[in-house]
Specification:
The termini are far apart. The radius of gyration is 18 Å and the shape is globular. With 238 residues, it is of the alpha+beta class. It has one domain: 2-Layer Sandwich (Ribosomal Protein S5, domain 2). Helix content is 32%, strand content 29%. Helix 2 packs across helix 4 and helix 4 packs parallel to helix 6. 42% of the residues are buried. The protein has six helices and nine strands, in the order ββββαααβαββαββα. Strand 8 and strand 9 form a beta hairpin. It has a five-stranded mixed sheet. Its EC number is 2.7.7.56. One of its GO terms (molecular function) is 3'-5'-RNA exonuclease activity. This is Ribonuclease PH. It catalyses: tRNA(n+1) + phosphate = tRNA(n) + a ribonucleoside 5'-diphosphate.
Length: 238
């Protein structure tokens, strides 16, 4: 039924390549099937001005797509002079998702900047970016512990994200572009390793979907995230 031939509850081929960038304190090339995103984490030894003197740190994110990440070329947003609303919404989502599993007091007055660059897009770029960013962030924080700058990792849980949708009347896991572009409903689930809900974005594309359908999507997302957090841990060797 699915264009890819996957079962309803089957993720795409998921691959993490931590330490991809030579210079960043943390990095990961993450691949959800044909969607490839490079995530890097940069440590800055100062907090943003609004946190100065609070003893608390911050995690922020930027997101962008390369011009030929999609079927046709898209101008760089820098060339257009401003970011689209979609870009701003996605990078805020990435930042919120990572901060949800952080103890920012333990991080102290420093900021970590996450950069997510979409090399190739085939659906689910925001969920791919969140899932890969956790790996990059973990690496960056581990470097602070290794240097004895921090006494412990300031992370309270893992976080990963996956898309689900109603495709040809069936709830399916991890939509690729062929499914996402024609789905009757689609949703993005950001969940923690322990099963906590960070954020859910769900939209009916054609007609309203039912509460049982929503619960079916949530159950699929939980199954998918369970796999993703296991793959994150394997990639990090923890």
């Amino acid at each position: 039924m699915r264009p890819s031939g996957r079962s309803l509850s089957q993720l795409r081929d998921i691959r993490f390549e931590p330490g991809f960038s030579k210079y960043a304190e943390g990095s990961c090339m993450v691949r959800f099937g044909g969607t490839h995103v490079l995530c890097t984490a940069t440590i800055e030894e100062k907090a943003p001005p609004f946190l100065k003197g609070t003893g608390s740190g911050w995690i922020t994110a930027e997101y962008g797509m390369l011009p030929r990440a999609t079927h046709t070329r898209t101008d760089r947003e820098a060339a257009r002079g401003k970011q689209t609303g979609r870009t701003q919404e996605i990078q805020r989502l990435i930042g919120r998702s990572l901060r949800a599993v952080m103890d920012l007091k333990i991080l102290g007055e420093r900021q970590i900047r996450i950069d997510c660059d979409v090399i190739q897009a085939d659906g689910g770029t925001r969920t791919t970016a969140i899932t890969g960013s956790y790996v990059a962030l973990y690496q960056a924080l581990s470097s602070l512990v290794e240097k004895d700058i921090l006494k412990q990792l300031p992370m309270t849980d893992q976080v990963a994200a996956v898309s689900c949708g109603i495709y040809e009347g069936h709830p399916v896991l991890d939509l690729d572009y062929a499914e996402d572009s024609t789905a009757e409903a689609d949703a993005n689930f950001v969940l923690t390793g322990r099963g906590g809900i960070v954020e859910i974005q769900a939209t009916a594309e054609k007609s309203p979907f039912s509460e049982p359908d929503f619960h079916a999507l949530l159950e699929l997302a939980r199954e998918g995230v369970d796999v993703l957090v296991g793959l994150q841990r394997k990639a990090l060797g923890i």
